[in-house]
C-alpha cells in the first residue's frame, strides 16, 4: 500500500513535546507528497529521523525511526521522546529518542581487570544439553 498525500495519519501514542509532535506531523505530510514509489518506507524513515535529529537543539540523544506493516518493537527511550503513528490502515511508524551515553575514562584508569573478566567470559565453553 503506497501512501498518497490524502492518506490519513493517526497518532496512536505520543510522549513528546507539542513542538516536536508538530514538527513530526508536518514532516510526515510533506514526505507523503514527495515519496518515491520504490523503497518508500526506508525513505520515509530516513526523512523523519533526519528531521527530528536536525531539530535536536539541546544536543540530546539521537532519534530512531521504524516504518513497516508487520514488526514488533521493544525499546527503551529517554522519556518524553516517543510516538506511534498509523499511516493509512496498515502502515505503522514509530519514532523514539534514546539517551546518549558517555563513558568517561581517565588515561590513568587500569582496565586490565575489566579485560580479564571479558576474556574469561569469552573463553568459557558453554554447557551443552
From TrEMBL:
Family annotation (InterPro entries): DLC_sf, Dynein_light_chain_typ-1/2
Record-linked SMART domains: Dynein_light
Source organism, top-level taxon: Eukaryota
A Pfam family recorded for this sequence: Dynein_light
Name the UniProt record assigns to this protein: Dynein light chain
Xref: Gene3D superfamilies: Protein Inhibitor Of Neuronal Nitric Oxide Synthase
GO cellular component terms attached to this protein's record: dynein complex
GO biological process, one term: microtubule-based process
Amino acid at each position: 500500500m503506497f501512501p498518497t498525500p490524502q492518506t490519513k495519519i493517526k497518532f496512536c501514542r505520543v510522549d513528546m513535546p507539542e513542538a516536536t509532535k508538530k514538527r513530526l506531523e508536518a514532516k510526515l505530510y510533506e514526505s507523503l507528497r514527495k515519496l518515491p514509489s520504490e523503497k518508500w518506507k526506508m525513505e520515509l524513515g530516513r526523512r523523519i529521523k533526519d528531521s527530528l535529529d536536525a531539530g535536536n537543539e539541546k544536543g540530546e540523544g539521537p532519534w530512531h525511526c521504524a516504518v513497516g506493516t508487520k514488526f514488533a518493537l521493544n525499546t527503551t527511550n529517554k522519556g518524553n521522546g516517543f510516538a506511534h503513528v498509523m499511516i493509512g490502515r496498515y502502515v505503522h511508524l514509530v519514532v523514539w529518542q534514546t539517551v546518549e551515553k558517555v563513558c568517561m575514562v581517565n588515561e590513568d584508569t587500569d582496565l586490565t581487570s575489566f579485560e580479564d573478566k571479558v576474556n574469561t567470559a569469552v573463553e568459557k565453553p558453554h554447557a551443552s544439553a
